[in-house]
Design a protein that fits this description.
The complex is a heterodimer of chains A (437) and B (488). Chain A has 18 helices and 3 strands. About 1% of the residues of chain A have low confidence. With 437 residues, chain A is mainly alpha-helical. Helix content of chain B is 77%, strand content 1%. Chain B starts with a helix and ends with a helix. Chain B is flat, with a radius of gyration of 32 Å. In chain B, strands 1-2 form a two-stranded antiparallel ribbon. Chain B folds into 2 domains: 181 residues, no CATH class; 235 residues, Orthogonal Bundle (MetI-like fold), CATH 1.10.3720. In chain B, helix 1 runs antiparallel to helix 2, helix 1 packs parallel to helix 6 and helix 9 packs across helix 12. Classes of the chains: A mainly alpha (437), B mainly alpha (488). Chains A and B meet through helix 2, helix 10, helix 11, helix 12 and helix 13 of A and helix 2, helix 7, helix 9, helix 10 and helix 11 of B.
């Protein structure tokens, strides 16, 4: 009897033996490990996003303020207004810098001799005169007066003050020597140095000097480019989607169009740049670097995205709407124009805004059509030379001065704010007009 | 008369046409609107379309052809003496000698494309009143040509204005006269709108055609100088061609294999990051994650996809490359400051959401019955995933990976900013390599000559890039479609 019962006991069963429990534990451990791999993968992706946003913000935050030095500047009419007309148009723009230098020499009388004075001038921005000129501006009454003004410090001082350059570094390894540092500390002790809001960043255009470089021109360029893109891509995209979804007969031409749209969606962006260069610039002779050409190239690029999302929105409108309209005697075009399209519009607009957000961040094709032009004033029309936000990021990332690192990061922050705003609008639109049939 | 004024005039006439057509329709109906074939607004639109559309099409054509035609006319109108005098001032000695020979021979095609462009830029600058950009010695020589150019342009502008005004008014008057209760205005309008819709849909085909033709056209010109065999199989890439014939050390070599290998290396590194991370996160999200986690993680991954590539490029040079270099030197490895690893890793991060969302779709398309069957037999979730779901979803995942590789190959800004410029064949990701897109950008950004092998080589590279990505996409879509059909 025991011989028969023995295999039946729990300890000896294939599924319950010690080995079996070991196997089971191993399987459960493998299960846990697999799950952890998945969590790790997500963690890696999220961590990268956090690190990216964190480093950009850390680098970029400091660009919003600027170290400045307060000086008592005498606006000497003999220098500023050599013609004596008191007309701001006749002012000698270059003389403002000299006036500031004079003020600096008066502030530090101990700095004598050519070398000492040269070092002294190294404290302030070599383009400080531009700021003073703006301050004095068109107010001729300032002439002859002595005023207190905040003058931007040089890039080296600015970076030391922000801790980007280590002031404890050996003297030979930093752009500012001990004597200059002592002068600057003196200014700080007297309360004549401190941070001011970097309004230049938002009001001026590109420059070779970090303290004079701003984003305004690039923002205007981006807006102009997006206007061209939107006014081309939206009507053409909607028209194509309406035709393919509502009117097109099932034939070879329609198939060819669909295949083309799907393929264009996957063509690398730089190839669109080559198209723009060869066709718009070289063949049609349109102006290089202009928002018109940039916008046209980006419009061709974003067309597939807009068409695909517009078709999805049109498809979501139930056929009963169309049938009701047709039943009431409306023509097919009237059905689409009066009923289907208005109902699909929120969906189409959502897709379009997302496509425009992508277009705003597009860089490579715009480099091909020369939108990396060095533009020191905001473009005033669609045919002017212009730069756009992402291209400005690219240009500044290439600039050798240390001050451009924080400007690049700040420009990225502005770009990301625009993108978040656009995508946020799209999500809001979708939430608000979402409709279940 | 500028084109914008002309367009404004046409639009104004078209608007007037709308009102005239509408009121005319109401008038001919004799107070009984129902006797009209269409609603009065359609009569208005009918007139407006025929007043505006032909003139607008004309303006569009003219805008496209204005510069090519006038420039060709100006060049054709230059006499031999002007060309000789200009050449003596502007051309390097060797080109000048060649020009003189051709002048003596009395041929028709005297200048090369490059020289023509230079001449045209001079003429355009003088005509635009920007003589400060022009060599003062040439100023006097080209003044007549510039005057000719301005005359032609203003003549063209005025004649366009006049012709489109006549067209618009003619269209308006003619169609307005045709209005009667029997005129099928709605059908007429709808026919035109339908045609416009078709024209808009054809733009997708024209874009593809434009890409293929422009790339092919320029590539053929390139291959006339450099043999395709050397381009596709040569191992030495150094596109600096000599500006002068006597210049040393820059003969120009166009062997693109180092670029292909560099592109591949960076794409492989990117896929090593994006493949596992994207696939595993897709599996976790679709098979394990509770609803709440899924709803928060997916948008986060989408943010990753929405960040512009230029930002990733800056991130690579600002953060990732220094970290990799520091880790490398800690381990005693020499890492290039723009290593393929840094560019590849960052590109991988960029592609993660792409791989993840495509894989997610594919995994979700596996029928629930397969999962239930496997779990019912006692398999754990991970065993189900590895032994049932992944084999079933394999074609779709392969397709997703192919699409991701095509993305990686075509990506430009990350590599332009973070990868190197030196063409080198290596499989070591710690060294700097260059890619096809980096070279295209480097060759075409900034001032270029229009006709040198150096500039044209960028188009040949673009052609290779276009067809490589096209092939990958077509294969990937086929694979995915086959797979979809299996479970539909």
């Amino acid at each position: 009897m025991t011989e028969i019962a023995a295999p039946m006991t729990a300890t000896h069963s294939f599924h319950t033996s010690v080995e079996a429990e070991k196997r089971l534990r191993a399987r459960y451990a493998a299960e846990q490990r697999f799950k952890i791999y998945g969590i790790l993968a997500i963690a890696v992706a999220c961590l990268m996003l956090v690190v990216l946003l964190f480093t950009i913000t850390r680098e970029g935050m400091t660009a919003f303020w600027q170290t400045a030095i307060r000086l008592e500047v005498t606006i000497d009419p003999a220098k500023i207004d050599p013609k004596g007309t008191r007309n701001p148009a006749d002012f000698d723009r270059a003389a403002f810098q000299d006036v500031i230098h004079e003020a600096l020499y008066t502030r530090f009388p101990q700095a004598e001799g050519r070398i000492a004075r040269k070092e002294l001038r190294g404290l302030i921005s070599p383009v400080a005169g531009v700021f003073l000129a703006k301050e004095v501006g068109d107010d001729a009454a300032m002439l002859g007066r002595t005023i207190q003004v905040w003058i931007p410090a040089s890039d080296a001082i600015n970076q030391i003050e922000k801790g980007r350059i280590d002031r404890n570094e050996e003297e030979a390894n930093r752009p500012i020597n001990d004597r200059q540092l002592a002068w600057f500390d003196q200014l700080k002790k007297d309360g004549d140095s401190g941070p001011i809001f970097n309004s230049t960043f938002f009001t001026s255009s590109d420059s070779n000097y970090p303290e004079l470089a701003g984003l305004f021109g690039a923002v205007v360029g981006s807006v102009l480019t997006l206007i061209v893109t939107l006014s081309l891509a939206l009507p053409i995209g909607i028209a194509t989607a309406v035709y393919l979804e509502e009117f097109a007969p099932k034939n070879r031409l329609t198939d060819l169009i669909e295949v083309n749209i799907n393929n264009l969606a996957a063509v690398p962006s730089i190839v669109f740049g080559l198209l723009g260069l060869a066709v718009f610039l070289q063949f049609f002779g349109l102006p290089r670097s202009s928002p018109l050409v940039g916008g046209m190239v980006i419009a061709l690029m974003s067309l597939p995205t807009i068409i695909i999302s517009a078709r999805a929105a049109l498809k979501a409108v139930p056929p009963s709407i169309r049938e009701a309209a047709l039943g009431m005697g409306a023509s097919r075009l009237q059905t689409v124009a009066h009923h289907v399209l208005p109902l699909a519009m929120p969906g189409i607009l959502t897709g379009t805004i997302i496509a425009m957000a992508h277009a705003l961040g597009e860089t490579a094709p715009l480099l091909m059509v020369g939108m990396n032009a060095f533009v020191t004033s905001a473009p005033s029309g669609f045919l002017d030379s212009a730069s756009v936000l992402p291209v400005q990021v690219y240009i500044w990332a290439d600039a050798p001065e240390r001050g451009f690192v924080e400007l690049t990061s700040a420009a990225i922050m502005v770009l990301l704010v625009f993108l978040v705003a656009m995508n946020g609008t799209a999500i809001w639109l979708r939430k608000k007009f979402e409709r279940r049939w | 008369m500028s084109a914008s004024v002309t367009v404004a005039l046409i639009l104004l006439l078209s608007l007037i046409g709308f009102w005239m057509g509408r009121s005319r329709a109401v008038a001919v109906s004799g107070g009984r609107i129902a006797s009209l074939h269409s609603v009065p607004n359609y009569y208005g639109s009918f007139v407006a379309i025929w007043a505006g559309l032909p003139a607008l099409v004309l303006v569009l054509f003219w805008l496209a052809l204005k510069f090519p035609v006038t420039e060709a006319l100006v060049l054709a109108g230059l006499d031999v003496d002007t060309i000789r005098a200009w050449g003596q001032q502007m051309l390097p000695p060797q080109d000048l000698a060649q020009l003189m020979e051709r002048l003596a021979a009395g041929g028709s095609d005297l200048l090369s494309d490059n020289q023509k462009q230079l001449l045209l830029i001079n003429i355009r600058n003088i005509a635009a009143g920007q003589s400060q950009y022009v060599n003062p010695d040439v100023l006097g020589i080209l003044k007549p040509a510039a005057a000719h150019y301005s005359t032609l342009l203003s003549l063209a502008n005025w004649s366009l204005f006049a012709i489109s005004a006549v067209l618009a008014v003619g269209g308006l008057v003619y169609t307005r006269a045709r209005i009667s209760p029997d005129l099928r205005a709605r059908n007429g309008v709808e026919k035109v709108v339908n045609a416009l819709l078709i024209v808009c849909s054809l733009i997708a085909i024209f874009t593809t055609l434009g890409i293929v033709l422009s790339l092919l056209f320029e590539s053929v010109r390139f291959f006339a100088r450099v043999s395709p065999v050397e381009f596709l199989f040569g191992t030495h890439w150094s596109p600096q061609t000599a500006l002068r014939a006597d210049q040393a050390g820059s003969s120009g070599a166009f062997g693109a294999v180092p670029l292909f290998s560099g592109t591949l290396l960076i794409a492989v590194v990117a896929m090593m990051v994006a493949g596992p991370v994207g696939l595993l996160s897709a599996i976790y999200l679709s098979e394990y994650a509770p609803r709440g986690v899924r709803n928060t993680v997916k948008p986060v991954l989408e943010i990753l996809a929405g960040i512009p590539t230029v930002v990733y490029g800056f991130f690579a040079i600002l953060t990732v490359a220094p970290v990799i270099r520091d880790v490398g030197s800690l381990l005693g490895l020499s890492v290039s400051s723009n290593s393929a690893l840094a560019a590849g890793v960052v590109m991988g991060v960029m592609i993660v959401p792409f791989v993840s969302s495509l894989s997610d779709d594919v995994i979700n398309a596996v029928p629930q019955s397969l999962r239930d069957g496997s779990l019912g037999l006692g398999a754990t979730r991970s065993e189900t995933v590895r032994q049932v779901i992944l084999p079933a979803a394999l074609p779709g995942i392969v397709g997703a990976f192919l699409l991701a590789i095509s993305r990686a190959i075509g990506e430009t800004m990350i590599v332009v900013m973070a990868a190197g410029m030196a063409a080198k064949i290596t499989a070591n990701p710690l060294e700097a390599v260059t890619t096809v897109t980096v070279q295209i950008a480097a060759l075409l950004v900034g001032d270029q000559e229009f006709d040198s092998a150096k500039t044209l080589s960028a188009f040949a590279l673009g052609l290779v890039l276009f067809f490589a990505t096209l092939l990958l996409n077509v294969v990937a879509l086929r694979v995915v479609q086959k797979y979809r059909e299996k479970y539909d």
